[in-house]
């Protein structure tokens, strides 16, 4: 049976994932390729961009075979792409990467460049033009870092890519970047003008051709003969521009309308509040949205699933056992408070030298208590971000949860209890690859689909009213613990940079 499908592929931090989706939104086939980042030095996080294309090709060839095993002959009508970001991949005039890609806010190497650009341009002017203060999330300082620290590499750079735009280039030959990704290249993009800010581009990205700008759901081009031969996708198939995975994930669950907040439970926790007004606050990220006329206030925890995976690794336990033990541990983890800053922290404290702290440990505590404390710590981190967003003027009326962490009911319930938020959980939470497939269908179908039809809400998670007072007190302790340990922890972070071997920590 021949079925028209769209192909969606997302290049993530720990894996690449692809789906084939039919015209009703049903997933026909899914496949994943696990990979690891490179951590060549403390606070550096990189990846070889050749891997992105190799995994795309592998997924594009495997997915139709998986569909055929079910008696379905997929006819790929369009291709959607997304990827982690903002990343900095510089390539030469032949589109050969000049160095590994520098990843998003988890890579914190550009502290000196953040300080220098802020001093040179002025913090207020950077916020006026680009929307946000410069932090480890911004791509601009990382470009400046390459120019400063690897000048011979920068001399060869002619083009700027992120994972989605790299796939588009390989598939279609188009050199294009979406507006949302571009707005995270601060200070090189003007948020209000929705255009590259030429004076600052010329100053800090001289010699690099600015990519053409388009919106995430716009068709960037068509699959070339060469790409068709490599990936097995018919030549001439439309390919959308795509965007950063968190924003594509918001699309996948319909959390991209005015008043929506998306919570993405992944390796890190990401939050995106959508509105129509440009909101600015020093501790969060102001960007344009995935669609014309929208603006976002975004935030992200540096760890989330990465923290639970770390605990799983050091305890040699599986997730079901840890979740069961955490449930037995109960609210408050029997008197533990944990700061989840094991890889520094992004928003709202913007502190790359923050570190994890576990307070209250005794010989009676178990791995289940530690796991419960980690889940509660990420929930309190979400609360800290949400309260900061609302203080900046974000009108959050609807919360949608997405990502791998939504598969565990306990984690969702703890987040709702700690924040007081009702969370909607859609039927499909597979992530950004599904959103990419939807954008491809919406851009090319004769009758564009609605994501509410493709992916309706399956259930809601409501906060336990009896938990409110307890988590109010725990949140206050959480904030006090950071404030009271910050100075010492910063000393330890400096010591770690001196003492630990290269690549020993993020």
From TrEMBL:
Pfam families per record: FGGY_C, FGGY_N
Domain Carbohydrate kinase FGGY C-terminal: 262-443
Residue span, Carbohydrate kinase FGGY N-terminal domain: 6-247
Entry-linked SUPFAM superfamilies: Actin-like ATPase domain
Membrane-spanning segments: none
GO biological process: D-xylose metabolic process
Gene Ontology MF annotations: kinase activity; phosphotransferase activity, alcohol group as acceptor
InterPro entries: ATPase_NBD, Carb_kinase_FGGY, Carb_kinase_FGGY_CS, FGGY_C, FGGY_Carb_Kinase, FGGY_N
Protein keywords: Carbohydrate metabolism, Kinase, Transferase, Xylose metabolism
Gene3D superfamilies: 3.30.420.40
Family membership: Belongs to the FGGY kinase family.
Record's protein name: Xylulokinase
């Amino acid at each position: 049976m021949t079925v028209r499908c769209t192909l969606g592929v997302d290049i993530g931090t720990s894996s690449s994932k692809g789906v084939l989706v039919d015209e009703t939104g049903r997933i026909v086939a899914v496949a994943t390729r696990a990979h690891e980042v490179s951590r060549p030095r403390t606070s550096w996080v990189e990846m070889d961009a050749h891997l992105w294309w190799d995994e795309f090709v592998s997924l594009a060839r495997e997915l139709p075979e998986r569909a055929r095993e079910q008696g379905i002959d997929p006819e790929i009508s369009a291709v959607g792409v997304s990827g982690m970001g903002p990343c900095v991949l510089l390539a030469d005039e032949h589109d050969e990467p000049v160095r590994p890609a520098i990843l998003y806010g988890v890579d914190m190497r550009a502290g000196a460049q953040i300080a220098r650009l802020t001093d040179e341009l002025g913090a207020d002017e950077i916020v006026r033009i680009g929307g946000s203060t410069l932090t480890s999330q911004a791509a601009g300082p990382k470009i400046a870092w390459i120019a400063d620290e690897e000048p011979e590499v920068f001399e060869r750079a002619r083009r700027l890519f992120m994972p989605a735009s790299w796939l588009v280039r390989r598939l279609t030959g188009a050199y294009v970047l979406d507006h949302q990704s571009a707005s995270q290249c601060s200070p090189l993009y003007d948020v209000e003008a929705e255009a590259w800010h030429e004076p600052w581009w010329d100053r800090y990205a001289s010699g690099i051709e600015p990519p053409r700008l388009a919106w995430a759901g716009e068709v960037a081009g068509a699959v070339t003969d060469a790409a068709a031969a490599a990936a097995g996708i018919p030549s001439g198939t439309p390919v959308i521009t795509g965007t950063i995975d968190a924003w594509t994930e918001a699309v996948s669950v319909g959390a991209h309308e005015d008043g929506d907040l998306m919570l993405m439970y992944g390796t890190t926790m990401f939050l995106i509040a959508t509105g129509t007004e440009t909101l600015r606050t020093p501790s969060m990220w102001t960007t344009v949205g995935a669609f014309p006329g929208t603006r976002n206030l975004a935030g992200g925890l540096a760890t989330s699933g990465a923290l639970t995976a770390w605990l799983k690794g050091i305890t040699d336990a599986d997730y079901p056992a840890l979740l069961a033990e955490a449930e037995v541990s109960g609210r408050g983890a029997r008197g533990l408070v944990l700061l989840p800053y094991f890889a520094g922290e992004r928003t709202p404290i913007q502190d790359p030298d923050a570190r994890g702290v576990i307070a209250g440990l005794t010989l009676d505590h178990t791995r289940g208590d530690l796991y419960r404390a980690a889940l509660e710590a990420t929930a309190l981190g979400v609360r800290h971000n949400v309260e900061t967003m609302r203080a900046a003027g974000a009108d959050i009326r609807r919360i949608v949860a997405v990502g791998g962490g939504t598969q565990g009911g306990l984690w969702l319930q703890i987040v709702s209890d700690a924040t007081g938020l009702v969370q909607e959980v859609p039927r499909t939470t597979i992530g950004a690859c599904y959103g990419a497939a939807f954008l491809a269908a919406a851009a090319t179908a004769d009758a564009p689909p609605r994501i509410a039809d493709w992916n309706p809400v399956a259930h809601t998670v409501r906060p336990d009213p009896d938990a409110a007072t307890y988590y109010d007190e725990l949140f206050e302790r959480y904030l006090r613990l950071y404030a009271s340990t910050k100075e010492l922890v910063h000393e330890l972070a400096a010591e770690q940079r001196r003492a630990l071997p290269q690549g020993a920590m993020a």
